[in-house]
Amino acid sequence: MPKNLRSFVWYFLKSHRWALVVFAIVTIVWSIELSLSPYLLKMVIDGVIRTAASPDQMLAVIILPAILYPCMSIVINLNFRMFDYTCLKIFPKIRADIVTSMFEYLSKHSHRYFAQHFSGNLSKKIFDLYSGIEPIIQIPNTNFIPVTIATILASVVMYSVHPIFCAVLSLWTVFFVSISYTLSKRSEALSYALSETDNQLGGNVVDSISNMISAKIFSNTRYEKTLISDAAIKLIDKDRKLQMHMLKTFFVQGLMVTTLSASMMVGLVYGRLHNWVSVGDFALVLNLSGYIIMNVWNVGKEMIRFSKEVGKCKQALNIISEPHEIQELPNAVPLILKQGNIKFEKVDFTYADNRSLFNELSVEIIAGQKVGLVGYSGGGKSTFVKLLLRLHDVNSGRILIDDQDIKTVSKDSLRNQIGFIPQDTELFHRSVFDNIRYGRLEASEKEIIAASKKAHCHEFIEQLPEGYQSLVGERGIKLSGGQKQRIAIARAILKNAPILLLDEATSALDSVTERYIQESLHAMMENKTTIVIAHRLSTLSEMDRILFFKNGKIIEDGSFETLLKIPDGHFKCLWEMQAGGFIPDMPFPERAE
């Protein structure tokens, strides 16, 4: 993905090279018409005055320019409709390509990237690029280039009247464009800053709305309003700075336009008094000056708009086009799973803030083995699973599945072989049916219902207003925690991957439902390599093996019964002091080391 805006625009425009040819034709025709129409009018006026004494000669003198003058209107109308048709053909496709390409690139970012950015802001950045691409392409082709050519042609035409008019127009145009360009660069910087502040406000709004239940429960809606209000005040300040700069810019441009109009009028009156300007010349210079002033003035305004769009799109591109933290090798091959043997080989891992977690961690999980991960918060259990899913990359060492380094295989093929049931279930704002089918998109309705029954969610789904077609709300807000967890379990059952990862998959269930689902989970674990992160030690009793994590190290490794027999063992201590079936977040003081 291109990292700078110019390359980004060309990346999406290069497949529409024919459109550039059309834009060039439109530009040339419009530029010629801008100077030719006033010149034809001059010919008509001068012809009428010159043949006033001989009416019979008048028609022969003015017939050609008189016919060509209205014909130019027809030509220019067809010219612009050709331009509109070209835009109609290419811009919807370019915008659609931007959305899909940006989403594809965004989806390859690491777990850490999404943890650092508001999801609402990222979607806004995609649509900033979506909406900004058209004016960034159009403005140069409808303003900058044609007006530049037209001004050059107008200077040549004015030279035929008197060199002074050519000199005045040329010098004024150079001065006007230089001043406008300088002011527009400041607009670009202010627009970039405004976009950053708008980004923060949008993130705060999305964050507050997403957590509105918490805000209500803690009676903190006013606090959330204050946070949003503070961000909005910053946005107002940035916006006013940009608007004030634009106001000053337009004022300066207005003064310059007045200067040109006055200069041309003085020159024409003086020339007419001294008989080196004809009546037709008078009309030509006034009309041509008016056209040029109007279009150059519009260029000045569009230059400001162009700079705003450029600043906004640059800011969006800088965020989205960050290099991918987890790179897939160009020659990555599909993971070929034979048994499901997992091996961590001298793995080092450090967080982004330079906190070290794993240091030469080595452990092997035999294919088909059911392994429980236990330990205090921050010990490394979740990171262990995320490294296996390659949501993070190791700093050194290797993670092997059936002797294949997961860095050398494609990420999709790796994750296709792993079923994952998280503790915090994330659901799409789609139907229940679609959320379950997400485990295997090609699954039939019969298979989806069968998986739902095994996960004991078929009963409550049938009671929903529209059954399996009921929408679950954003992130599944219409469902209870237990219902969402059962849908996640159904999704994993449907996927039926040979490696299974469970992060306390039944923590949100009542005891009766949990007992039934545990039976389904045990059946699903058969002949699968299974890793279970446990917060309730009772769920570990049927594991073949338990790994106890503490500060990034595996300090105990053995079966449930074996670990309970270790005098003063960490697992035994937890088992004895666990209240209500849950593991304390931190060791008790006497167990601290």
From TrEMBL:
It is found in: Cell membrane. Keywords: ATP-binding, Hydrolase, Membrane, Nucleotide-binding, Transmembrane, Transmembrane helix. The chain crosses the membrane at residues 20-39, 59-80, 250-270, 276-297. Residues 342-576 form the ABC transporter domain. Its EC number is 3.6.3.-. PROSITE patterns: ABC_TM1F, ABC_TRANSPORTER_1, ABC_TRANSPORTER_2. Pfam families: ABC_membrane (PF00664), ABC_tran (PF00005). It is an enzyme of class 3 (hydrolase). It comes from the Bacteria. Its main location: membrane. This is Putative multidrug export ATP-binding/permease protein. The keyword Membrane applies. It is a multi-pass membrane protein. The keyword Membrane applies. Residues 21-308 form the ABC transmembrane type-1 domain. GO terms for cellular component: plasma membrane.
